[in-house]
């Protein structure tokens, strides 16, 4: 992921154990992620456990962390990409794991939000249906940071149609993500089948 110098500096400050001890880091991470999904979420500036940290530093770190999170969600970043970026910002392994676990949770929340929004928008209209699917296997040897990745990924293209208008949905996923998607689609199909039989 391409990150600005300001975002990298904010992440480096967040990684610094002299500024954020492990307890402060964990609280900051929880509050920062929560602020993205909850309109009534607590602010890092108002949290009593973070009062000892300079308010300007907190603002900068919060801006950097949320920018990084949203960029990761936008790019559908996998664990190696997230870990690589955080390691570049001098995060220790324990902090990388803490941050990535929260990232996975927020990624699922955004996915559920998008799916529910899609379902809400298509209540009174005919939802789009898949008319064709294509896929291609891609093998990534190195990432943009010149780190070895050696990981296959699948490029999926779904052609959809709604009320005579066609569109295309493109995305990339790993083997595990593809297996997870197929499992969720099978579960959804079974739920739909049960609902129509009731």
From TrEMBL:
<dbReference type="InterPro" id="IPR037355">
    <property type="entry name" value="COMMD3"/>
</dbReference>
<protein>
    <recommendedName>
        <fullName>COMM domain-containing protein 3</fullName>
    </recommendedName>
</protein>
<feature type="transmembrane region" description="Helical">
    <location>
        <begin position="99"/>
        <end position="121"/>
    </location>
</feature>
<keyword id="KW-0472">Membrane</keyword>
<dbReference type="GO" id="GO:0006814">
    <property type="term" value="P:sodium ion transport"/>
</dbReference>
<feature type="domain" description="COMM">
    <location>
        <begin position="129"/>
        <end position="196"/>
    </location>
</feature>
<keyword id="KW-1133">Transmembrane helix</keyword>
<dbReference type="Pfam" id="PF07258">
    <property type="entry name" value="COMM_domain"/>
</dbReference>
<comment type="similarity">
    <text>Belongs to the COMM domain-containing protein 3 family.</text>
</comment>
<dbReference type="Pfam" id="PF21672">
    <property type="entry name" value="COMM_HN"/>
</dbReference>
<keyword id="KW-0812">Transmembrane</keyword>
<dbReference type="InterPro" id="IPR017920">
    <property type="entry name" value="COMM"/>
</dbReference>
């Amino acid at each position: 992921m391409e990150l600005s110098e300001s975002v990298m500096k904010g992440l480096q400050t967040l990684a610094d154990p002299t500024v954020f001890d492990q307890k402060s880091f964990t609280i900051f991470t929880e509050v920062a992620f929560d602020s993205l999904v909850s309109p009534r979420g607590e602010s890092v500036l108002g949290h009593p456990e973070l009062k000892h940290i300079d308010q300007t530093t907190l603002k900068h770190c919060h801006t950097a962390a949320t920018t990084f999170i949203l960029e990761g969600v936008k790019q559908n970043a996998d664990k190696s990409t997230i870990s690589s970026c955080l390691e570049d910002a001098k995060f220790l392994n324990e902090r990388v794991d803490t941050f990535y676990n929260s990232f996975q949770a927020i990624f699922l929340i955004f996915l559920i939000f998008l799916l529910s929004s899609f379902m809400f928008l298509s209540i009174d209209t005919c939802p789009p249906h898949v008319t064709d699917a294509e896929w291609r296997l891609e093998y990534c040897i190195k990432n943009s940071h010149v780190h070895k990745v050696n990981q296959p990924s699948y490029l999926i293209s779904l052609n959809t149609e709604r009320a005579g208008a066609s569109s295309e949905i493109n995305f990339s996923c790993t083997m595990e993500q593809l297996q997870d998607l197929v499992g969720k689609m099978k579960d959804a199909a079974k739920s739909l089948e049960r609902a129509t039989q009731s």
